[in-house]
Amino acid sequence: HMRLVVDLDGDGNDETVTFWFSQFSYKLTVTRFDSALYLSLPIDAESLDREHIAQVAIKDVTNDGLPEVLVAFGNGYSSLRVLVFGFNDLGRKSRQITKETFVLLDQFEGQSRAFFHEGGRLTLPYGSQGLFFEIKWTGDSFERKG
Question: Which residues 6+ apart lie within 8 Å of 51 measured at CB?
């Protein structure tokens, strides 16, 4: 189990983000006081290569003052998948963590590593020539460039 304690909704009370592997699949929950929200991961462990590593981080990648939950699956070389969970538009207004408001905002694929920059921008390198995808948060969704 990996547990991260963080205030996801900005109300001054911490939520607990828990990530674990069980029965051939990964599980992710956000617990607020005594209620747990299960977040569905659109990935199954069998589709990942055997050498993959799973990582979880908390970072405000949408630049709205509230952190998102990032889950990455990669092998350190040629394969990386990043999932971004956070408030959708309704959730940013209500600041209530429910299955309708705290959702998978997007997912990205690249190689080796992802770089999250200030201002809601992320870059995903690909190929061996220094090329990268650039993705920018537009206020309600991620937009891919390049």
Answer: 75, 76
Provide the whole-model pTM.
0.91
Tens of pLDDT, residue by residue over 62-99, are 988 999 999 999 987 778 899 999 999 999 999 999 99
Q: End-to-end CA distance of the chain, in Å? A: 37
Three-state SS for the chain is CEEEEECCCCCCCCEEEEEEEECCEEEEEEEECCEEEEECCCCCHHHCCCCCEEEEEEECCCCCCCCEEEEEEECCCCCEEEEEEEECHHHHHHCCCCCCCEEEEEEEEECCCCEEECCCEEEEEECCCCEEEEEEECCCCEEEEC
Structure tokens at 78: 């040629």
CA distances from 37 to 96, 134, 141 (A): 11, 31, 22
| Angle made by CA atoms 100, 88, 44, in degrees to the nearest 5 | 70
